[in-house]
Design brief:
Radius of gyration: 13 Å
Helix content: over 70%
Order of helices and strands: HHHHHH
Structural class: mainly alpha
């Protein structure tokens, strides 16, 4: 679902029309985060603050193994919360 969202030309065109920013990739990553994480999710918030929405999403999906300040345990717990959305992302 999320991977398809990021490449969908209709979604990308709609973002260009409705958003003042030209940073469609960041907007799409933030949309994905709004699907994956609950409000107040500290691990998601820390990842986004540290890495930015795009790289944080890559870490959450396991596509990017960067140095993050979140502990391995906290990241594993976050991934378990986001699992349903991440499965849909494939």
């Amino acid at each position: 679902m999320i991977a398809g969202l990021r490449t969908d030309p209709v979604v990308r065109a709609a973002l260009h029309e409705t958003r003042a920013t030209a940073d469609v990739e960041t907007d799409l990553a933030r949309i994905a985060w709004s699907v994956l994480a609950e409000p107040g999710d500290g691990v998601a918030g820390a990842l986004i603050a540290e890495l930015g929405a795009i790289d944080a999403l890559s870490v959450a999906c396991g596509d990017l193994a960067g140095d993050v300040s979140a502990s391995a345990c906290a990241l594993a717990e976050g991934r378990s919360r986001w699992a349903r959305g991440l499965i849909l992302a494939v």
